[in-house]
Request: fold
Amino acid sequence: MTGIIDIATIWAFIIAFAVFVYVVMDGFDLGLGILFPLFPKKADRDVIMNSVAPVWDGNETWLVLGGGGMMAAFPLAYAVLMPALYTPMIAMLIGLIFRGVAFEFRWRTLSKQNRWDIAFAGGSLLATLAQGIALGAMLQGVHVEGRHYAGGWWDWLTPFSILTGLALVIGYALLGATWLVLKTEGGLRDKAYRLSWWLLFAMLAAIGAVSIATPFLHVHYTQRWFAWPNVVLTAPVPIAVAAVTALLLRSLANRQDYQPFFLSLALFALSYAGLGISMWPYIVPQSITIWQAASPENSQVFMLFGVAGLVPLILGYTAWAYWVFRGKVKPGSGYH
Amino acid sequence: MFEGWDAVGLARAQFAFTMSFHIVFPAFSIGLASYLAVLEALWLWTGREVFINLFNYWLKIFAVAFGMGVVSGIVMSYQFGTNWSAFSDKTGSVIGPLMAYEVLTAFFLEAGFLGVMLFGLERVGHRLHFVATLMVATGTLISAFWILSANSWMQTPAGYAVNADGQFVAADWLKVIFNPSFPYRLVHMVLAAYLTTALVVGAVGAFHLLRDQHLPGPRVMFSMAMWMATLVAPIQILAGDQHGLNTLEHQPAKVMAMEGHYQSHKDGAPLLLFGLPDQAAGKVRYAIEVPKLGSLILKHSLDAPLAGLDTVPRENWPPVPITFWSFRIMVGMGFLMMGLGLFSLWARWRGTLYQSRLLHICAMAMGPAGFIAVLAGWITTETGRQPFTVYGLLRTTESASPLASPAVASSLIAFVIVYFAVFSAGVIYILRMMAAPPHHGEQGPRGDAPARAAGITPAAGLAARGSAR
Reply:
């Protein structure tokens, strides 16, 4: 680790930021898809869809920024990770196709049994599972020779990657449930509250399981978290998780509609920070550091101008779009 | 299913397949977004109801087409890494930033304002809604700017250096972005998108005029579309000619393949109208040709010498039959479009624009012509660049991911099944919406659904309920 903030470090944080914003934004709308089978009534489903219809497309654009930004700023890492995570990536893309088109298609079909509702639920689950599995597969390390991925096309499938896949499904479902608490009323909200309780406990179990399993993957992770003096910096993470959990439990108990969603996001942010602590300074764990993968400085500087000038603007008009569609989505407003 | 195919061939098939599906949607939505901005502007300016009805009518179709463009586009942006990782490693530092700028300046702009454009008319007011429509339309054009810059750099690389790891790096960003073929390709593609949309709008208008020539909406859209075809098709043919001359300068082998010129011609090359290119024998069989015309078009002189593929090493030949035929399909479509435009102009002059059944039938038949021309044009330019991904510098065989054939074959089969299932459903929904004419009180996507919360009366919702059927 170098102590100097260089441009590759800045870009590592930008990519991490883009991926986190993606997780924050698409996480809850993928979560809605995961929870969809639990809301069989058409009226409820229409409200759920209308609560994200105006914003889902912008949410998914962060995924394109994460992928495109990685290709531009860390081409070697992109070139190694994508073939290594081939099957989960293809599965994610196919899942995103099904759920993405469902937003419009489900209003256009004439059949009573709406197969695009199945596409929305199945696609969301598949995409989430694939993202979680890809994360686990990356953390456990990939086989690199020279500048290429040198493993097989089933290397990603391990108990650990299945665990991270399930953990992400639970996490996104929690975000989805708390989003519904925020955006809906009446029976739909009551059900979302009940689901939030269950999902919060499942999420804590998942965080615990992944945290226990990670140090066993590689000695690097063990040292990073438990060796002195690192532990001074890493110990606050689990403490903060406990604090946020306490606040979240209280907000669910007191039924404060606006709090659970943002506290769930805080839980995600802490898990994400933990992930960053584990990975740093590698971009392909245990093989390629951010400096080895970085594109030349003039490419990174060229893009930095764009990011510095445009990302605040993007966040501004995205916030405006959310503001335009603020408030509770009324049941019955989906008249189709 | 794919026995005997190597991983590179499968990866190419996958790119060609997913790209062919994808390009159809942006080609349509670039033109449609601009058309929607024009319709909304006309509505705000004149206050005539027919414009807002047309706006809402096409907005619903735009929503479905745009959604399909987004999801098929995400596949494209990840395919560089999954199937073409060696290409990504080598060119990521140069074309990656161009695509990153596309995301930052275009995708976010489109996505950020799309929700307001689709559902927000009653929430934000007319003026702000018009701004949102303009932002979406501008976003589609900015997107075309960056992605065509990246594609053009692969065709005519400029402003680069190669580092110790064999990666391309930028030496001069302006030269990278404004590489030699970029301005021509950008103009040609944006005009193609506008024509494609105009022909679709014209075909839908014609379809409804055939049933009832007094419908106000179809009359307005048919007239607008025919003006577009009349004016833009000739400009497009000129732009295409200029693009071809630029290609002759920078990618001569592509033009040789387009023209079917296996042999060099010392004093005036013929123009091959038709024929069967035989790649193995290196000649065109059963050629129907006009002497000297090839040199006249490409060199503006009857007797100018023109080199053929016999001057190019065999291993650098593009696949002539595909390039040759797709080029002819594109050009043929272009001239048919111009013909339709002239026909409509004549009918307009005679005062039979809304009555001529023959014109309406021709306009309907030409509805898909823009898509066919766009696909044929893309096949021409992409196969004509072969056997390179970065023209003259990086071979396609050196660009692919180190993957086993079964992995690529499985994903290809998966994409084929999913794309046909999903996108044919979408096309059916779009055709179904087009089958009903725009009418009085036309509502946008979901009518006033999100606006109900803002206090629109149930009566409006009831009216919308009727229109949604």
